[in-house]
Specification:
This protein is mainly α. It has a single domain, classed as Orthogonal Bundle (434 Repressor (Amino-terminal Domain)). The protein is built from five helices and no strands. Helix 3 packs across helix 4 and helix 3 crosses helix 5. The protein is elongated, with a radius of gyration of 18 Å.
C-alpha cells in the first residue's frame, strides 16, 4: 500500500488557534470553558450509564430532578461545585478529586 503525504492537514491545536485565537485570548478561553463543561456532562452521563442508572434514578439518589441531570449531561446548565460533589458522593458513592493544570 502506497503511503501518501498530505501537507494540507492542520493539527487540532492549530485549528483552534485559527478559529478561536491563541490561549489567553477572550474568545479562546470562552471556547475552552465551554468545552470543559461539555466534557463534564459527557463524563457524568457515562458514569451514570456504567452504573446502570437512569437520569430519574440518579436524581432521586442525590436529591435533585431528572431535568437538572439532563441539563448537566447536555451542557445546558452550569453546575455548582458543591452540587457536582453531592451528585458524585450521593449518586455514585464516590469522591470528586480535582486537579489544576498550570
Amino acid at each position: 500500500m502506497k503511503k501518501t503525504e498530505n501537507n494540507n492537514l492542520t493539527s487540532f491545536t492549530d485549528h483552534l488557534d485559527q478559529e478561536y485565537g491563541k490561549r489567553g485570548t477572550e474568545k479562546r478561553e470562552s471556547f475552552e470553558e465551554g468545552f470543559e463543561a461539555f466534557k463534564l456532562g459527557v463524563m457524568l452521563q457515562e458514569l451514570r450509564k456504567n452504573n446502570g442508572l437512569t437520569q430519574e434514578q440518579l436524581a432521586q439518589k442525590c436529591g435533585t430532578t431528572k431535568t437538572y441531570i439532563s441539563r448537566i449531561e447536555n451542557n445546558a446548565s452550569d453546575i455548582r461545585l458543591s452540587t457536582l460533589m453531592r451528585i458524585i458522593r450521593e449518586g455514585f458513592g464516590r469522591q470528586l478529586k480535582l486537579s489544576l493544570d498550570f
